[in-house]
Write a structure and sequence with these properties.
alpha/beta; single chain; Trna Endonuclease, Chain: A, domain 1
Amino acid sequence: MEAMFPGIKFKVVGEPKDIGAAKQLAQEDRYQFQWWSLSLIRARPLGGETGSREGKKGSDKGIDGVIAFIDDNTGKAKRVLVQVKSGHVKSGDIRDLKGTLQRENATIGVFITLEPPSKDMTTEAVSAGFYYSPGWNQNYPRIQILTIEELLQAIKAGKTQLVNMPPQFGTFKQAQRVQQSDAIQGELGLSTG
C-alpha cells in the first residue's frame, strides 16, 4: 500500500493478518515469510540472534526454526524442530522431517505450510507416532502439520499454545524445585501454607 504526503512517498509494510496477505508475503520474500511463520509459534529462527526477527539464509539441513523446552529432572533442553514451506508440499516433505528429527536427535517436528496438507502427508505424520513427556506424563504427536490459516485462526481466537508440546515456559524443572522446597520444609516441621 503506497501513501502520498507532500513530497514524501513511502510504502506501509506490516505483518500478514489473513491468508491473502500471507500468500503475498510468501511470493514477495520467502525468507520474510519463513521468519514471520516461525514468530507465530514463538520458534527461534535457525542461526537467529536472541530477540532478532531474522535467521540465517542458506543451507539449513531441513531446519528453519527451533523451540526448546525442559520436561524432566535432567535439566537438559529438548528440541522441537520447525520446517516452513510456502508451496508445493508433498508427503516426501514429512518423511524428510522425520529423518531430520532422527539425525538431529530432536523430540518433535512441526511442519508449517501455506497450503493444506494432502491425505498422504497427514498419514505420514501420524505414522511417526508420539513423544512421551515424563515431566508432564503426556503423549505429544512427534510430527505436527500446522497450516498458516489454522495458525491465524487460532491466534484470532486468543490461543497462545499453538504447538502441541510440553510447556515452553514454567518448566518441569521449576515445578520440581517448588515440590522439593515444600518437602524440606515439611521435614523440618515448618508449615508450607
